[in-house]
């Protein structure tokens, strides 16, 4: 079954509101394996509604219309549907009695304008609306020239009323046809690879599973793969398992999560907690974004001790002990200073890992040698390599500790495209991925 | 002129994402008096895109398409448009060279898949994309059977790229046709008042200017009023001036800006720069969000020296000198500690103003006495009151300085509703508004 959603309402063509009702409808359609082919929004115009309905019916066999069923003059969905299908408008006596009762209960006489809400498209199945006065309708259309009959639902646009009618009418109708829930998805989240490179890597999976069953959603430095499977419960589970395994194999260790709820910062947090390790950060161009991302995660105080935003050079020296000579010789945006910041914040604030970012986020401040987008990342922490033979094993303890041997400091130089916001975001994204890989590597040396 | 917007992307037919790009396009259309007749969303399917384009062209004379111009296999907008209009696809050598240069600058070889982004619809005007690699296109369509020629724009779906192309290409093209902007808006941005209270205050203006000419857009702690006027240039200017003045009078000093580009952090930044004053911050529950917001503003290094995220109690003592006894007696979330953090960060980091936030963002950590949403704000700075008579006037200097007299520390206790993200946002919003009011008050005592 293929579907289209048509939202009616001039306010949905303005600059303020979007048709969010379609998301609820889409969720129900997906669960029942109905493919949504298009969404449309038109204003409160009979001609526009009728045209959109005609176009939709030419391409799909289920059309869901929301809005335009109210009592006011600009509510014209009934009339448009009747005109498009060559059907009459009739007053439904039962609906009319129900509306009159509602007003009586409030102690009011029904305003004449509400009489219109008892108008229904002739030949439709009227769907009572327990949360409001405008009923919905279902129409089965088997016009000459159609290869197969189509179905049309008319729903009110008020979200609470729509939600009720989805549960009462749409869901049971779909369940009867689909014989149970039939579509499921699995996700893979990927850090640090551009969308085009992810696409290149997963191309074999398109051939094996069908291109339409894999979707790529990308934002800078963060790619989401969505795999979907149709069938009975066993088939879906088996197919999603196979797709996930294959995609993970093709993408490699850039996959950082298998659920949409997990973020790069929550994954890093789980790894830190698992290693009973602590983290501090020193930020310059990202101005606190790294700390802010880390602390979006509830419970991050388990492993994140704090950080410093050393926006001025003076604070780089006073807070994280970057030697003035180093700043003078290399400049604040340099490998030497990034390394010194990472080591300095780790030592000064007393954590297992220390991360640092210094760069030029723009729009000003760039030069020929160090253009906007130049960013140095550094990560200081316990040595990654296993202890050399002959040395005693370090004492095992669940209490975070700073080993007496000098930390290993990794460094990366980035040349990032984009504007200030994007450069700042990408810098934190790549640093978090460095930290994730470092913690994974540390974990393989000394598994918990 | 009548327009339709067609958004392309299978992800826009899922349960997560809506086509928000259409809102930006609608704003530009409205400004130029173009009526939007319909919006459509289709997936990454040549047949669906071509059908939707055909339907739109039958009803309007301007079609704006977004999305599906990327490098991956599921980006098929070009092919669909070419097929629908019977035009060929050609490789644009200039675009290809540009894409290759972008990859060279990043030190990468262009992946073969990106070659596709140089493919354009034959006969189109290619619109260079300075923010990404996929160019846009404009096509003038004067097919037989059309009463009047139509125009088609193809834009990338990435919001930042689209925004750039609207400014560079769509807006000038529309301005040429509309003979000047025919609808104009003015905005007022309001901090620290709930939407319902703003609505109550401005009710008289609804009667005076018409309800439909004033729109309220709200997010937590930040309300945007949009006043709109139609007419010739003189009428619009006069009406917007009158509306702005009236609304500002009704709302009062909670209005912090009169342009959409200004943010609370940029307004605070301008005030700090104007006062030649410097700022440092100490954050606990907001975890760096305050520093991050301040440094979103380009040039913020003029006044923002840096900050500390003292997530652990130990760092509150070591970085901003909060006495351990104070923490033990009152707890980290207390007025006494907030005040000590503000004074401490100001003194330790050497700035004119020091701001501090400590609270419980949740979901865990709340108690009967200090529930989730309990937040203490403090702001330390030069005394607000004018110098007492008989005392010598303080030395005037453009160099930022810390007065030798003890700072004035303001404090606010908040009980915020909502989830972790909202509590963190609101805390920074209200602190920034405290700082704005303090700087304004300081400015009236000693105007620059």
What does this entry look like structurally?
The structure is a homodimer of 448-residue chains. Helix content of chain A is 39%, strand content 23%. Chain A contains 13 helices and 17 strands. In chain A, strands 2-1-3-8-7-6 form a 6-stranded mixed sheet, with helices on both faces. A 5-stranded mixed sheet of chain A has the order 14-13-15-16-17, with helices on both faces. In chain A, helix 2 crosses helix 3. The two termini of chain A are 50 Å apart. About 2% of the residues of chain A have low confidence. The interface between A and B is large, with 79 and 82 residues. Strand 2 of chain A pairs antiparallel with strand 2 of chain B.
Describe the secondary-structure layout.
Two copies of one chain form a homodimer.
Chain A: E1 2-8, H1 21-31, E2 35-42, H2 46-57, E3 62-66, H3 77-85, E4 89-91, H4 93-105, E5 119-121, E6 125-127, E7 136-141, E8 150-155, H5 159-178, E9 183-191, H6 195-209, E10 214-219, E11 222-230, H7 233-251, E12 255-257, H8 264-274, E13 279-283, H9 289-295, E14 304-310, H10 313-320, H11 324-330, H12 335-349, E15 353-359, E16 374-381, E17 408-415, H13 420-445
Parallel strand pairs in A: 1-2, 1-3, 3-8, 13-14, 13-15
Antiparallel strand pairs in A: 4-5, 6-7, 7-8, 9-11, 9-12, 10-11, 15-16, 16-17
Helix pairs in contact in A: 1-5, 2-3, 6-7, 8-13
